[in-house]
Amino acid sequence: MTFSGHRARKRFGQHWLTDPRILDRIVVAADLRGDDHVLEVGPGRGALTERLLASPAASLLAVELDRDLVAGLRQRFGVDGRFTLIEGDVLELALPFPDRPAPTKVVANIPYNITGPLLELLVGRLGRPAPCRFEKLVLLVQQEVGQRIRARPGSSAFSALSVRLQLLARCSSVCPVPPRCFSPPPKVTSEVIVIEPVPPESLPPLAQALAVERLLTRCFAGRRKMLRTTLAGLLPAPDLLEVAAAAGVDLQQRPQELGPDRWLALATGLNRASSADPGGA
């Protein structure tokens, strides 16, 4: 059981969480039961892994990219029949893994340099569901990312990411994590967040989801502009005003002022009006 000679590597975004109180809070937030199958991304030296295996969880599947950590992890935890370790890049692996129970929860101190694509893999995106349906994800992320995910309309942190994630899941904060809780300490404050994907029946239908995605891309590219400017040309001005009013949207507003429900309503109205008007964009 040794990781002697191994040093945290910047290219892998390695910062080992060492504070036992934060590690315990992560496990408590996961609320692991005897029928849970857990996915851990980037176990590192196994501080969180140890606590996950001390829980009632039925199994733990860990994915580690750094080959120099793999031998130590197998030596440390391989005697536990519930533990499986896969060496590789989680972004290049097919989920769920063949011949293994589909994970029900994700618990991880994720590498900050892959946060965006990893969230897309684990939670999905509008119009493209995740390959695995997780009950809950408990993730350690940069606080800035956590704030953007949880931000409310009107906040400076509110963004297209806020809308996407809040349409796909319920998002909440567990606790902030200062740099001193890591070795080596990162230059930013971190945060433990909980993401609970909504059931499939609560997701927007495909056509509506894709319409929202297109609208978010268009409008947040000019987030300082009023919607009357970014939406100009989609419909004749009187029709655009009518659709916006029906959706509860003021075209004087800017993108960060609309909550997820208003984006859904606006995208649906624009889609319907454009389909009815062959001359619409």
From TrEMBL:
EC numbers for this chain: 2.1.1.182
Entry similarity comment: Belongs to the class I-like SAM-binding methyltransferase superfamily. rRNA adenine N(6)-methyltransferase family. RsmA subfamily.
Group of enzyme by EC: transferase
Main location per the UniProt record: cytoplasm
Keyword Repeat in record: no
UniProt keyword terms in alphabetical order: Cytoplasm, Methyltransferase, RNA-binding, rRNA processing, S-adenosyl-L-methionine, Transferase
Family annotation (Pfam families): RrnaAD
Entry keyword annotation includes Nucleotide-binding: no
Localization: Cytoplasm
Domain Ribosomal RNA adenine methylase transferase N-terminal: 22-199
InterPro entries to which the protein is assigned, alphabetical: KsgA/Erm (IPR001737), rRNA_Ade_diMease-like_C (IPR023165), rRNA_Ade_Mease_Trfase_CS (IPR020596), rRNA_Ade_methylase_Trfase_N (IPR020598), rRNA_adenine_dimethylase (IPR011530), SAM-dependent_MTases_sf (IPR029063)
Molecular functions per Gene Ontology: 16S rRNA (adenine(1518)-N(6)/adenine(1519)-N(6))-dimethyltransferase activity
Residues at which S-adenosyl-L-methionine binds: H15, L17, G42, E64, D89, N109
Catalytic activity: adenosine(1518)/adenosine(1519) in 16S rRNA + 4 S-adenosyl-L-methionine = N(6)-dimethyladenosine(1518)/N(6)-dimethyladenosine(1519) in 16S rRNA + 4 S-adenosyl-L-homocysteine + 4 H(+)
Record's protein name: Ribosomal RNA small subunit methyltransferase A
Organism: Cyanobium gracile UHCC 0139
Gene assigned in the entry: rsmA
Function comment: Specifically dimethylates two adjacent adenosines (A1518 and A1519) in the loop of a conserved hairpin near the 3'-end of 16S rRNA in the 30S particle. May play a critical role in biogenesis of 30S subunits.
